[in-house]
Amino acid sequence: MKIALAVVLLILALIVGPAAWQYAHFDPKAVPTSGLPWQIDVLPGGEARVFGLTLGRSTLADARTRFGEELQLAVIAEPNETGNVEGYYESITTGFVAGKLIVTADFDKATIEGMRERSPKTEYMQSTTRKATLADADRAAALAAPIRGLAFIPSVNLDDAVIQERFGAPAERIRVNDHLEHLLYPEKGLDLVLDSKGKELLQYVAPARFEALRAPLKAQAAAPAKP
Questions:
Q1: Number of domains composing the chain
Q2: Of 31, 90, 131, 224, which has the highest C-beta tally within 10 A?
Q3: What is the pLDDT of residues 30-52, one digit of tens each?
Q4: For 165, which DSSP code?
């Protein structure tokens, strides 16, 4: 039994080890030229391409073609909020980096509210966040919608040194509480969230729409701390 366990651990080390090492120390000539989290192409129209998807042009159907049929569609909403239509992947691999991916559709408030009302099932996810499964009639519309933003949670932990090496120095840092700090790259449309108590989060939007992401962070950081 001990021998078998040792063999399993060795195999896992051989599989996971190179990917983790490449993420922290890489030779630019030895990695893909596109598709990695830090490989962001900024386009002339104020858009950006990441993971092979162009924000504002590519659709959720394009994301499904790119990453597979496992895309889960639903309206995700916090209390007293309309929420967003999101596609979710529990696990993807892009380049050599694995993680979770959330694809947000670009819908107006009225359309999202209508989809919530037609949902055949609503359930709680974490805490008070609610998940409303899309009705069959709304799934086609969701897949045809352009992508407003992407959120990627890498399976490996990032630290400041790795971030500086991959993404460069951020234009701005905003700390919103004792464990969350946002590293902002407005020219790339990237908000990289460092969480000392959890996993890092990479949020991508078109650079032309970056201020809509930045403004709430500034307001949150400026708000007085709750007792």
A1: 1
A2: 131
A3: 555 678 999 999 999 899 999 99
A4: H
